[in-house]
Prior knowledge:
One of its GO terms (biological process) is fatty acid metabolic process. InterPro entries: AMP-bd_C, AMP-bd_C_sf, AMP-binding_CS, AMP-dep_synth/lig_dom, ANL_N_sf. The chain is α/β, with parallel strands linked by helices. The protein has three domains: about 25-170, Rossmann fold; about 205-425, ANL, N-terminal domain (Rossmann fold, 3-Layer(aba) Sandwich); about 430-530, 2-Layer Sandwich (GMP Synthetase, Chain A, domain 3), CATH 3.30.300.30. The longest helix is centred in the first third of the chain and has 17 residues, at about 40-55.
Amino acid sequence: MSESSVNYDVLSPVKFLLRSAEVFPQKEAVIYGDTRRTYRQFYERVNRLASALKAKGIGKGDKVAFICPNTPPMLEAHYAVPMIGAALVSINIRLSANEIAYIVNHSDAKALFVDNEFAGLIGPVLSQLKKVHTVVNICDVSDEMPLDGPEYEEFLAGGDPSPVAIEVDNERQIATINYTSGTTGLPKGVMYHHRGAYLNAIGEQLEFGTSANSVYLWTLPMFHCNGWCFTWGITALGATHVCLRKVVPEEIFKIVGEEGVTHLCAAPTILIGMSTYATENSIQLKKKLEIMTAGAPPAPTVIQNMESIGANITQTYGLTEVFGPHSVCQWQTQWDNLSADERSQLKSRQGVPYIVAQYMDVVNPETMQPVPRDGRTMGEIVMRGNNVMLGYYNDPEATETAFKGGWFHSGDLAVMHPDNYIQIMDRKKDIIISGGENISTVEVENVLYRHPDILEVAVVPVPDTKWGEVPKAFVVAKSNSSPTAEDIIAFCKENLARFKAPKYVEFGELPKTATGKIQKFKLREKEWAGRDRMVN
């Protein structure tokens, strides 16, 4: 059905804002520095943006691109653009000019909103953006107008604060397009539909335990899976968004204290930075801070370190193609009395499907048969359900491959435990096959994170004439420490089967995405330059 009736209504996350504006008109909806806006003001600004876009000829089926950090305009775009039936394309702010140009052109975007800090990336490629006819400057850090187009507040002033009709008549209409990182080729545009965004936004709040009294800090990029759908979910509850332009541990702890932050989301590398800063500055949280982490399997040590300063960690798992998190390490009360180490080990698992997701399994990718629930046999994680993407924009071949066998193929290798909890062992391309033995890089990394002198680590396969490939560890040492390669290798041999220990160790910074995920593919490419690596 595509039209509302007495017993059916089109699901769209845009509708959450209308309800909260009616229920909580005077409640603080958005905080950003000294800026405070109520839900009524938030809704009026969204209507202004929507009507101003319509006045520029933007409507149903069109695309609107935003290059913007976690500031109010980025949040407003998540409502105004899909409200008029268009699709929001929120772009990774750490991409190069050519990558941005590719995404803008590939998505067929007609309007482009650019924060001043990133205008320097757009200027050189602006002439290449053939379909863009409207450019808007978001002047947050300065009043300069580097691009030919109006300033954001000026653009809003040309709109009308009166309610704008929601032009969504089909739940499977495209709401947003999120481009993948393109680690194995050009970025692919993941199409989110209104139904999936609505349900996953609700699912996030169910699993995270947020409420109308929650204060949510934006440490997770809104451009990443639309902020795991929290852009819509926090609004659905009438909770408070606290925008944050730059994710710096000192600023995070400052705002947590000043604004009474109750919840935030972050990749494990952000948690490492937070726990290190807290340790160095003797910080102990005054009240429990709920943190959802995903983006990479967190080491149990990382979880334990954060919980020691007063946080409670919820581990979730997902991908861009499934609207962000799809599963949660659902806590069981019988685990409450376990030791801190045992609890952190359990919390590091990827868990069970969300209530709104339901369908997830670990299978042999060739036969599509489930692997034994023994916690040892590896297979591929597959998913299906309402929060799976429509497909890749203008890429039917990639879509067909991803949906082989009627499931979405994650590319992640995992085991299924007897209690039906999933645990990731590796990405398909990261698993090390050394002399015929499988070595999980995640398992090796988890051991290395227990080393007292290691801050961050990534393990990748490197070529070896005898074994085919062997593990190599790239290590960031803690400040005021100087571990040696020999120390680290010996530590692994004491805590792992000896053949799993790294054969080589290299010290230095690790390449990361804008969400803090370590880019292992860059380390791999460096080690395998000029050689062919066979990956199943």
